[in-house]
Specification:
Length: about 80
């Protein structure tokens, strides 16, 4: 069975790059362009891990992580380009 990863990030270029890379390792990557969409996907088809961007339109990644933690213990890896 493939490992399922959910990427919540509004950067389409990064999403394409990660999809290309992770599929080499038998990892299934679902993507969401914002936090609300990501939460819907998480509840509909729970992943094994979430890659979550800090800087998202609307709710930021920290707010989304708090929402995830209310109902799930799924591992969350935070991504950021902030220096």
């Amino acid at each position: 069975m493939k490992t399922k990863v959910l990427l919540i990030d509004d950067d389409l270029k990064l999403a394409r790059l990660l999809t290309e890379y992770l599929t080499r390792f038998e990892i299934s990557l679902a993507t969401a362009g914002n936090g609300e969409e990501g939460l819907r996907q998480l509840w509909r088809d729970p992943p094994d891990c979430v890659l979550l961007d800090v800087m998202l339109p609307g709710q930021d990644g920290f707010e989304i992580c708090r929402e995830i933690r209310k109902t799930s213990g799924v591992p969350v890896i935070m991504l950021t380009a902030r220096g």
